Structures are given as structure tokens and as C-alpha cells.
Amino acid sequence: MIAFALFLGFVFGSFLNVLIVRIPKEQSIIRPASHCPVCKNRVKWYHNIPVFSYLFLKGRCAYCGVRIPLMYLIVELVSGAIFAVIFMKSPNIFYALCVSVSFALLLALSVIDIKYKEVPDSINLSAFFAGLFAALFYAPMPTFINFINLLEYGKSAFLLAGFFVMLRFILSYALKKESLGEADIIVAATLGALLGSQNGFLAIFVGALLSLIPALVYRKKGINEVAFVPFLSAGGFLVFVFKEHLWFMG
Predict the structure, then answer these.
(1) What is the DSSP string of 150-168?
(2) Helix count (H) and strand count (E) of the chain?
(3) What's the pTM value of the predicted model, to 2 decimals?
(4) Domain that includes residue 159, residue range
(5) Cis status, amide bond into 120, omega within 30 of 0
(6) HEC string of 171-184?
(7) CA quadruple 147, 153, 158, 161: dihedral, nearest 10
(8) Does residue 108 share a domain with residue 33?
(9) 24-61 confidence digits (pLDDT tens)
(10) Would you call 27 helix, strand, or coil by DSSP?
């Protein structure tokens, strides 16, 4: 099962690379087919096997030899790790799949936020609904549909979103400038849907701690704007993985 989850994550990671490259440029994710941006040759299917093709081709285009960005490989590997870890920890395959997709989409958002300083709503909302949909399957038996759990985690999602709206208002008023982005509110809601309210707030706290050092380094370089989505996402994933060991959460 873990090997299957790992490969599934690699495949989804390949799809994430398409989203990362095309969505910010407002290009179709369907057409044209995968191709080299330099020589324009269409990538053959055996040159497009996640992870393995990159390693076999030594990170270069099979036609013109131009170097393929290492980020493609990193995204596929991290996506595979996300799927593998979540499948190991989750009560059933349907729940694991929804949670894995949600966190993997947050990975894509993180890369886009770092690279383009923007967070596409299409991916952000997809991550939210995948996380919310996961609550339906949070049960030992994969055939059980838990609508009560959906309402509970839906409430947590809106609680965290409301908290971020208030936090954004307070910080913007205190600092006399826009603080936090609207996209961060949706990410907070996603964490609420995936983790519940208590662990969701903890994830935000962990994300804020993770962002401190990069924020200080950027400030010394005269850069005041730091992408926060990667840290929120990392905080959420860490809390999800280790939540059973958080004694203060019961």
C-alpha cells in the first residue's frame, strides 16, 4: 500500500508541476500537451514518467539537452512523501486520498507563492474542498459516510477563517498597511477542515514560528513581504503527522 501511495504521489506531483507552471500564466492545464519550452518538442510518454524519467534523462530535455529545473523533481518527490506518510497514518483509503490531495495542492500553492508571489483561487479552493470532503470519510470503515463529522470540521474551517479575518483587520490597523492576504484566510479554513479547531490553531502557531527566521533574514535584505502560505502549509502538515503525540491536545 505504501509503495502504491508513493507512486500515486509521484504521479500527482507531476500534475502539480503542470499547475505550478500554467495556472499563474492563465494557460490551459490540458492543452497543449507537455512539451519542452525551448525546442517545443512534445514530451513522449516514456520521457514523462514521474521521478524516474528525470533521473534517467539526468535532468535534461531528451531532444535539445536543455536543463530541466530541479523544482520539477523536488515537487514530485515531496508529493510522493506526502501521500506515503498520510496513507500510513489514515484510517481508510478514501480519507487518505482526500487529505493527501489537499496537502499536495497546498504544496503547489506554496511553490507558486514563493515563485510568483500570488496564490490562485482555483487551487486554493480545491485544497479547501478536498480537505472538507475528507471529513466524510474520517472513520475506521471505508464504507462509512460521516456527515456529522463533516459538519464538525466544517465549523472548524469557518472558525479559523473568521479568526484570520479578524487577525488581518487588527494587524492592518496596527501596522497601517495591508497584512496577511485573502488567500491566507482560505488556507486557514483548509487547515481547520483537515485538523479541527484546536489543532488548526496550533498549525497556524507552528507556521508562524517557522516563518520567523526567514522573515528576519528577508527584513535585513530590505524585503518586507514574505510568502506565508508555505509556512502555514508546513505547520499544518507537521501537526497532522504528529498530532497523536501532542499530549496537551489530549
Answers:
(1) HHHHHHHHHHHHHHHHHHH
(2) 8, 0
(3) 0.90
(4) 90-250
(5) no
(6) HHHHHCCCCCCHHH
(7) -150
(8) no
(9) 988 888 888 788 777 878 888 788 889 999 999 888 88
(10) coil
